[in-house]
Amino acid sequence: MNLLGYALDQLDTMAGITDLEGKIIFANQSALKHVGATMEKVRGVPFKDSPWRSQSDKAKKVSGLLMEKARKGETSLVEDSIIGADGSEIPVLFSISPIFDNQDNIVGFLPEGKVISDIKNLEGKIKKEKKEIQQWIDSMSAYIAKSDPNGKILSCNKAFMRAFNTCFEEDQGSYICDLAQIENTGDQTNLLKNAIMGAKGGRKSSLEVMLKLNNGSQPAGYFLFNASPIKDPNGRISFLALEITDISDQVQLREQVLDREKRYALRLEQEVAIIKRHLVKTEQFSRNLVESVPIGVLYLDHSKRVVYANPTMKHQFHTSGISKGEITGKTIEELGLRSANNFWKIDKAQDQDEQIYGQRKMVLLKEKEAHFCFEVRSGPLVTPDRTIEGSVLTINDVTKRVSLESELLTTRIQAEKMSSMGLLISGVAHELNNPLTSIIGCAEYLATKENLDSGVGEAAQIIMKDAIRASRIVKDLLAASYKNHMEERIVNVNEAIDEMIGIRFHELKHSGVRPVLRLSRDINPVLADPTQIQQVVDNLIRNAVDAIVESGVGDRIVIRTRMQDNWIVITFEDNGPGVVKENLHKIFDPFFTTKKVGKGTGLGLSVVYGIIQRHGGTVSYDERFNSGARFVIRLPVTPESSSFEEPASVDLLWKPTSLLLADGERNLRYSLSKYLTRLGCHVQTASNGRAALDLVLKNDYEMLLVATNLPIMSGFSLYEQIKARRPGQIDRLVFMYDSPSDSADSAYFTYNLQMLRKPFGKNDIFNLFNRFHKKISKRN
C-alpha cells in the first residue's frame, strides 16, 4: 500500500483510493494540496462527503452516479469542478475507476481528477480570438467570404451580405458565381469560374470584373475578385478565401490617367518641336554669352592647345602683341601665359606641373616682362554625353587690383614710417622739455632780478623768448605726432591762416602758386586747438599745391573768411584741375589718394575732416564750383566772447606757502625751486618717487608738484601710495608731464588732477596757482 501511495504522489493529477463502501483510504499530495486538507482529516470519510465532493448537492449526486457505474466495473469521465483551498472554483475532468484483484474481483475504487483550468482558458481565448477575427473581417469595407474548394459559401462578413443582399442562414452553401450578378455574363462568368478552379488547384487567382450589387439596384461597377487557397498542415486545401474589392474609382482614375497620358504625349511632341526650334537660338545665345562676358575664356583640347578664345581674351592677347589669328592651335605657354607665385613672379615649378584643374595666378608676358596679372580658374570641358574633351579656363584680369594692393602696401609702409617718426619726435621732445623748462625758469629769474646790468637783462630776455619759441616748436611736433585731448583756447582764425601762409610762403613761391587772402575783419573767435586749426589750413594748402603742380593746371589759391549767423565760414579755392565726379564720395576716406605711389599717404583730407568734426564743425566739397576745387569749412563761434584779447601778463592771486617739487632733472629742480622760493614759497625737492613719498609721509604741503616720469617710483605709482597712506594730501597733487601719451591722458581723465605741461614759464605757473586755489576754495 505504501508503494502504491508513493506512486500516486508522483502523479500531477488528483488521485485517491476508497474501499468498496466508498470510504477514503488514501489521497495523494496533489489532491490534498488543491483543497487544503490532510490525510488524517479525510481518511475513512465517504468520498461523496469529502472536501472534493461535499460543496454542492450536484457534486454529491455526480459522485454517487460515478460510484454506481464503478461498482458495475465501468469507468466514466465527466467535466466538473471543485472548490479550491482559496475558495476559487477549479474546473476538473473527473472519473472513478474500479480496482480489480488477480481474480478480477473489485476490491476498491480509484477516484481521479485532472485540473483543466489551462484548457478552459485556452478555449476562452480561442473563442475570443475567433470573435475578434470575425469582428475585424466584418469591419472591412471589402467583401470577404469563405468557401469550400468548389466555391460554395461557408461564411462571409457583413459587407458581403449587404452588397449581395443575402442572408447567411439562407444562402450558406450557395455558389459564388450564382450570387454575383456579373455584367457580360458569358465571358466574365467563365472567367470567374476559372478563377475558382485555379484557386482549387492551389493557385491564387485575381480577376477584374463588372458586378451589380443589391440585386441590380445599383449601376454596375468595377471590382477586383481574389481567390486564395488556404491549406491545412498536411498541405491539403481546406477552404478558399474570397475577397471582392470595389475598384471603380481606381479604374476611373486609371482611365483618366491614360487619357491624360495620351494628351500629354501629344503635347510633348508639340513641345519637342518647339524646343528643337529654340535649340539653335539657345546655342547661339550661349555662344554670345561666352563672347560677351567681361572675363577671358579659353577652351583647350587634351594636348592643352587653344581651340577657342572669346573676344575678351583675344583683346588681352592682342594688347600683349599677339594677333587674333595666331591664338588657335597654340599652348598657353606659347602665347606668353605663365604661372605666377604669390608675388606675381613667374613660377617655373608650376609651369611644369601637369595638373590642369583648379585655381592659380598667371601673368601674360610681353617681351619677357609681366604685362597683365590674371586669376585663372580651370575645369573639365564636358560634352552633353558626359565625355571630357579638354579643359576650360576663365581668366580674370586683376592687374589694376594688384597695382592698388601694391600702392596700399606702400601706403602702409609710409604710415609705419610716420608712426616711427612720431615715437622719435616724442623721445626728442622728452629730452628737450626738461632743459627748456630750466632755461625758461633761469631766464625769467634773471630778467626779474633788480639792479641787473642792462646788457645782462636784455640777454636774459632774448634767452627767455627763444626758449619759449623752442618750447612751442616742441609742442607743435608733439601735436602732429599724437592724437591727444585738445588744448582749446580762444583762436583768431585769420591769424592762424596768416601764420600758416607765412610758414609756407617760400614753398608757395617756389611752386609758382600765388596765395590770395580775403579775410573778413568782422569775424568772431572760435574755441579751438590752435595747432590743429593750423594743421587743417596746412593740409588744404598742401592739397591744392600738389594738385596744381602735378597737373600743370592753375596758379592761384584763394582763402576767404566770413561770418554767417553764429558760424565762421572758411573757403579754400584753387583754379587747379578740381576733383573728378567719380571720386567725390571718397575724397575724405583715409588712404584715398590720386597721387602717384610714394607722393602721398591719402590722409590729408581725412585728418581735416576728423579735426573739424571734433571742433563741432563741418567740411564739404562744393560740387557747384567748376573752376577748380573749393572746400568749405564751417566752425561755431565761441559763446564766451565776440572779440579777441591780446595775451597779457597773469596776476598771481595765490601761492602755496609750502611746496614739494619732485622731478628727476637736477637743473630743473634747481632753477624752478629758486624761482618758487623767490615768489615766497617754502620749497622742498625730491629726485625720485621714493624720496618724495618719504617727505609726504613726514610733512604736510599745500601743493605737490610731481613729474609723471619720476625714477624708481613713477608719478602715478606715487599718486596711488599717497592716496592709500596720506589721503588728505591727494587733492594737493599736480602732475608735470613732458609729452602727451596714453598715461598722461589717463591722469587727466581718471584722476581729475591739475596738469602742467613742460616746458612752462611764469604765466603758466601763475595760471596753475590761480586755478589750483580756485579749485581748493570751491571744495572747502
Automatic annotation (TrEMBL):
<dbReference type="InterPro" id="IPR001789">
    <property type="entry name" value="Sig_transdc_resp-reg_receiver"/>
</dbReference>
<dbReference type="InterPro" id="IPR036890">
    <property type="entry name" value="HATPase_C_sf"/>
</dbReference>
<feature type="domain" description="Histidine kinase">
    <location>
        <begin position="427"/>
        <end position="639"/>
    </location>
</feature>
<dbReference type="Pfam" id="PF00989">
    <property type="entry name" value="PAS"/>
</dbReference>
<dbReference type="GO" id="GO:0000155">
    <property type="term" value="F:phosphorelay sensor kinase activity"/>
</dbReference>
<keyword id="KW-0418">Kinase</keyword>
<keyword id="KW-0597">Phosphoprotein</keyword>
<keyword id="KW-0902">Two-component regulatory system</keyword>
<keyword id="KW-0547">Nucleotide-binding</keyword>
<dbReference type="GO" id="GO:0006355">
    <property type="term" value="P:regulation of DNA-templated transcription"/>
</dbReference>
<dbReference type="InterPro" id="IPR011006">
    <property type="entry name" value="CheY-like_superfamily"/>
</dbReference>
<dbReference type="InterPro" id="IPR000700">
    <property type="entry name" value="PAS-assoc_C"/>
</dbReference>
<dbReference type="InterPro" id="IPR004358">
    <property type="entry name" value="Sig_transdc_His_kin-like_C"/>
</dbReference>
<dbReference type="Pfam" id="PF00512">
    <property type="entry name" value="HisKA"/>
</dbReference>
<dbReference type="Pfam" id="PF02518">
    <property type="entry name" value="HATPase_c"/>
</dbReference>
<feature type="domain" description="PAC">
    <location>
        <begin position="71"/>
        <end position="128"/>
    </location>
</feature>
<keyword id="KW-0067">ATP-binding</keyword>
<dbReference type="Pfam" id="PF00072">
    <property type="entry name" value="Response_reg"/>
</dbReference>
<dbReference type="InterPro" id="IPR000014">
    <property type="entry name" value="PAS"/>
</dbReference>
<dbReference type="Pfam" id="PF13426">
    <property type="entry name" value="PAS_9"/>
</dbReference>
<dbReference type="InterPro" id="IPR003661">
    <property type="entry name" value="HisK_dim/P_dom"/>
</dbReference>
<dbReference type="InterPro" id="IPR035965">
    <property type="entry name" value="PAS-like_dom_sf"/>
</dbReference>
<dbReference type="InterPro" id="IPR003594">
    <property type="entry name" value="HATPase_dom"/>
</dbReference>
<protein>
    <recommendedName>
        <fullName>histidine kinase</fullName>
        <ecNumber>2.7.13.3</ecNumber>
    </recommendedName>
</protein>
<dbReference type="InterPro" id="IPR001610">
    <property type="entry name" value="PAC"/>
</dbReference>
<feature type="domain" description="Response regulatory">
    <location>
        <begin position="658"/>
        <end position="773"/>
    </location>
</feature>
<dbReference type="InterPro" id="IPR005467">
    <property type="entry name" value="His_kinase_dom"/>
</dbReference>
<dbReference type="GO" id="GO:0005524">
    <property type="term" value="F:ATP binding"/>
</dbReference>
<keyword id="KW-0808">Transferase</keyword>
<feature type="domain" description="PAC">
    <location>
        <begin position="205"/>
        <end position="259"/>
    </location>
</feature>
<dbReference type="InterPro" id="IPR013767">
    <property type="entry name" value="PAS_fold"/>
</dbReference>
<dbReference type="InterPro" id="IPR036097">
    <property type="entry name" value="HisK_dim/P_sf"/>
</dbReference>
